[in-house]
Amino acid sequence: MALPILYSLRNCPYAMRARLALYASGQQVLLRDIVLSNKPAEMLIVSPKGTVPVLVTADKQVIDESLSIMKWAFSQTDPDDYLNKAHTSALVEMLSVIALFDNEFKGHLEKYRCSKRYHEPSLLEDRQQCERYLADLESRLSQHQYLMSDKPSLTDLALMPFIRQFARVERQWYLQSPYPNLRQWLNGYLQSKMFSKVMAQYPMWLDSKEDVVFGAE
Question: Where is the GST N-terminal domain (predicted)?
Answer without folding.
Answer: 2-81
